[in-house]
Amino acid sequence: MAERRGRASRADGQDEPIRAAGAVLWRDGPEGADGPEVALIHRPKYDDWSFPKGKLKDGEHMLRAVVREVEEETGIVPRLGRRLPSVTYPVDERMKRVDYWAARALGPSGEGHAVPNAEVDRLEWLAVPEAERRLSHSHDVDLLREFRAGPPHTWPLAILRHGSAGEKDEWNDPDELRPLDDRGRAEAVRLAALLGAYGPARPISSATARCVETVLPYARETGADVATDPAFTIGRTDTERACARLLALADAGVPAIVCTHGEIVSELISGLCRRLGEKVPDEPSLRKGSFWVAHLAGGDDGEPAIAVLERHSA
Hints:
It is globular, with a radius of gyration of 21 Å. The strands form two sheets. Strands 1, 2, 3, 4, 5, 6 and 7 form a seven-stranded mixed sheet that branches. Helix content is about 30%, strand content about 30%. The protein contains seven helices and 13 strands. GO terms for molecular function: hydrolase activity.
């Protein structure tokens, strides 16, 4: 996640913004329609139409929060796509920041319903122009326009650095056998839930114990098989070979998670961005247990393009 910097906060936390997460939930429009439909919810307390969203619970990761809130308010499990701009606005005497994603509704038609309660009593699927007229707040209109300006259909390519695995100089056996430590195993469990927010993907790992163990909880939850690849394995590859393999995965158009080592993460991200015409991040490296997600879409020339690049930590 991007680091937030600023002046020191008061001890009571009143200078910190209220954190929330939400989504522009969409599904394919009916046959012959010009574009997708988006879901709007009606909140009786405010008598307004908006996108599903809600506050983060204490210690909750924003990826977990957006999936939970969308499901609670719409009855639909979302599959997160590209990151959308965050929205900040005042609430009473504090600021509220809502992080948004484009999210596809799972299921054959994205059917779902808001369970009538004090917070949400109606859900409607609307074409984008009609949704723009229905929305009650200008910042939601701006968000919808950002959604419409980019591709709705994307697929994720995640680059993951393995979790904590102790100190290399304290390990006396072959380095490829060095396992995750207690912290790393906890990170692997958390990563499985976070990566699962993007939907099923093919897990590909360096052929080292610490990398394979990092993606095992994800593989178990999704039923996928972990494939080891020497192109991402320290001691058996170089940056040129690793980048070529990553680009081949991007060209294949299949969601994938690549778990590898800190020594080559920066080159993988830089190489992917250069090949696909995206600005290289100022700091492309990752801490252990962190990951980049490149949301890819088909370009006009048939080549994949990066719609959005985002970074998260367990």
